[in-house]
Amino acid sequence: MAGRYFIVDAYTSRPFAGNPAGVCITNGQMTDRWMQDVASEMNLSETAFLSRQKNGWEIRWFTPEVEVTLCGHATCAAAHVLVQEGEEEAGANIRFISRSGLLSATAEPCNPGEAETRSAGSGTISLTFPALPATPAPVPEGLEAALGVPVEDFCVSHLDWLVRTGGAMMVEAAMPDMAAIVVMPPRGIILTGAADGGRYDIISRFFAPKIGIPEDPVTGSAHCVLGPYWQRLTGRNRFNAFQASRRGGELVVEVTEGAEGTGRQVILTGEAVTVMKGTLA
């Protein structure tokens, strides 16, 4: 048996919303080619592969086309699965050993009093990720035309470009030209704006055709950039965030000072629900 496989909708409390991720618990003997083939077969934005180590879980993430170095929603899904399957205790600190360093998570089942408003098997997950600062830069030629919305601010992180436009309506109305975006240098483009009141503080979308994801439903790693960016603009440390894809998803983003020597961190908190599980031949 190659491993157990799960599909989990992350950053939502109900099935068929949020961002679907594959999670595969393996015996640690799988090749890179096999993991890439599985991720391509499942055709989800990311699939996380887990193998138990002495000091935690090795985690690797693959899109249908490439391996990536950081993925929030698939890590959220992985923590959810490990607690649901009894591999880790609810509330325990789960250690993930990744190519972006040591990541940690906690996962809790939903409270009994919330069961009627949430799907069976849902739970709340908090991830502690490194903060990814973005530096202001000149707006690249053709970017505004590629996104189809005005650019009010432009910043560069080590993974992605961040573009702020004129509020939630502009973010939601954007009709990006994927053919233009795919030839641009970054992994992806984060489009963001301030929410127009209500339950959310910030709105975003994320476009990454270069790695096979034209528009990602909900992107945890993008919020590692969004948190520090909006903290700089507003002076606040905590935000209710909504990613305005077709499926939609929500999470709480909190920027904190990490332990000595670790630098700033971002805590991403959201829900997840398992929609499918089985075994890989």
TrEMBL record:
Keywords: Isomerase
Gene Ontology molecular-function annotations: isomerase activity
Any one annotated GO CC term: cytoplasm
Pfam families, per the entry: PhzC-PhzF (PF02567)
PANTHER family: PHENAZINE BIOSYNTHESIS PROTEIN, PHENAZINE BIOSYNTHESIS-LIKE DOMAIN-CONTAINING PROTEIN
Family note: Belongs to the PhzF family.
Protein name in the entry: PhzF family phenazine biosynthesis protein
Species the sequence originates in: Methanogenium organophilum
